Amino acid sequence: MKPISIAIDGPSGAGKSTLARSAAAKLGYLYVDTGAIYRTIGCYAHRKGIDPKDEPAVKAELPQIHVGLTYGEDGLQHMLLNGQDVTKEIRLPEISLCASAVSAHPSVRAFLLEMQRELARTHNVIMDGRDIGTVVLPDADVKVFLTASAEVRAKRRMLELEQRGTPEPFEKILKEIEERDWNDSHRAAAPLRQAADAVLLDTSELDFQESEAALLRIIRERTGL
Ligand code: DC
């Protein structure tokens, strides 16, 4: 039987990964965080001191890069860069910036496309990213565009940073979110946009439980699970 694929796209900070991971665990599906895959390429560029915005320089390195994806006993997705586990390193703020820069290059996107499709060919997946419903899995069984207002996303991020002991002012966080939204949705290669057949889920007014219930309802309605 053909595996089921669920595509979840949306802007940064909309809660995609937390919701997708939790829904995947409930459904017994594989959760694929595609942002982590772009972060792994960003990590390589950072380590090598390559300007991540310099497409020819990044493209020239691609044959030397092997991106591996494994699932630990904890069930969490681990990223391997040429065999080395970089799961923690890719979350550093400097790697976020590198990931954002390398993800704009068509050569990088083409390099990572097949690996993402292969996962969906061989497993029931919930895959999250920016172009899953539009480019990676245009025939996904369910497509969700998960979003929340920039203000709500900034507020959530502010609380997260406070809890981590690294608070930042609301206005600064909001400005960064708006900038990233603009960059993600205005780049030429696979910009962030809602697929015509995606269901819009706006979590601005919902807490986590309500958002998860809404996501599972959409998935069940569409797949008959
Ligand atoms: O979701 P994230 O913040 O971990 O993603 C890291 C970067 O990768 C982000 O700048 C957007 C980019 N990305 C992308 O272009 N396409 C995807 N499918 C996933 C992430």
List the helices and strands and how they pair.
Elements: E1 5-9, H1 16-27, E2 30-33, H2 34-48, H3 55-61, E3 67-71, E4 77-81, E5 84-85, H4 93-102, H5 106-122, E6 125-129, H6 132-136, E7 142-147, H7 150-163, H8 170-186, E8 199-202, H9 208-223
Parallel strand pairs: 1-6, 1-7, 2-6, 7-8
Antiparallel strand pairs: 3-4, 4-5
Helix pairs in contact: 1-9, 2-4, 2-5, 7-8
Bound molecules: 2'-deoxycytidine-5'-monophosphate.
Question: Key features?
Answer:
Rossmann fold; five-stranded parallel β-sheet; 225 residues; three-stranded antiparallel β-sheet; 8 strands; single chain
At the fourth CATH level, what is the homologous superfamily?
P-loop containing nucleotide triphosphate hydrolases
Low-confidence blocks of residues: none
Query: How far do the termini sit from each other?
Result: 15 Å
Give Rg in angstroms. Answer: 17 Å
Beta strands, count:
8
CATH topology, by name, is Rossmann fold
Structural class: alpha/beta
The biggest sheet amounts to: 5 strands, parallel
The whole-number mean of residue pLDDT values reads 94
Beta-strand proportion: 15-25%
What is the strand arrangement across the widest sheet? 2-6-1-7-8
Mind explaining what this structure looks like?
The structure is a single chain. A hairpin with a 2-residue loop joins strand 4 and strand 5. The chain has 225 residues and is of the alpha/beta class. Helix 2 (34-48) crosses helix 4 (93-102), helix 2 (34-48) packs across helix 5 and helix 7 (150-163) packs across helix 8 (170-186). The chain contains nine helices and eight strands. The structure holds 2'-deoxycytidine-5'-monophosphate. Residues 12, 34-35, 38-39, 99-100, 103, 129-131, 184 line the site of 2'-deoxycytidine-5'-monophosphate (DC).
